[in-house]
Amino acid sequence: MTRTHAAIETSELRKRLRHAIDERRKHTAAHRAVLDAAAAAYTELLEMTATPLVQKLANALRAEGHNFTVFTPNGGLRMALAKSADDFIEFALDTSQDEPFAALRVNRTRGRRVVQHERPVKGRTPVERLTEDDVLQALLDEIVPFVER
Question: What Rg do the C-alpha atoms of the chain give, in angstroms?
């Protein structure tokens, strides 16, 4: 089998290269706008919905004899078991996919073993469409293993 020299003209190659670069720039700019909008919606979700809800949940858990502490580090929210800072549920904005989503990161210890997982608050629902009920249900789903010990 013999190979022939590339038949494409240099001008055509450069034209297609410029087009590919321009398309990528447009895609990157659009994706950046999506990420910025999701970050703004996530900040609003934390401030207006998740933080007050988590504080109420922690108070209700304390009343039931389960001592949890709420932390609000810069741009985040974490509810940790008071007797072990390694046992916690925290909110995060997952931007690893094309469509960003709010997620819960869960860290639980069983003796020396650490069980970690991450899950969306509600499927791939966009952050701006999450409701208080969505957040509460996700928290309730994840809190049960902490309190059933």
Answer: 23
Segment 68-101, tens digit of pLDDT: 999 988 878 999 998 888 899 999 999 888 889 9
User: Could you report the per-residue pLDDT of 129-149, keeping only the tens digit for each?
Assistant: 999 999 999 999 999 888 876
Put residue 104 in one of left, alpha, beta given phi > 0 → left and psi -120 to 50 → alpha.
beta
What span, in angstroms and rounded, lies between the C-alpha atoms of 103 and 69?
19
Catalogue the long-range contacts made by 69-78 (C-beta closer than 8 Å, 24 or more residues apart).
72/46, 75/43, 75/46, 76/46, 77/46, 77/50, 77/51
Q: Which amino acid is at 37?
A: A
pTM: 0.82
Reduced to 3 states (helix: H, G, I; strand: E, B; else coil), residue 64 is coil
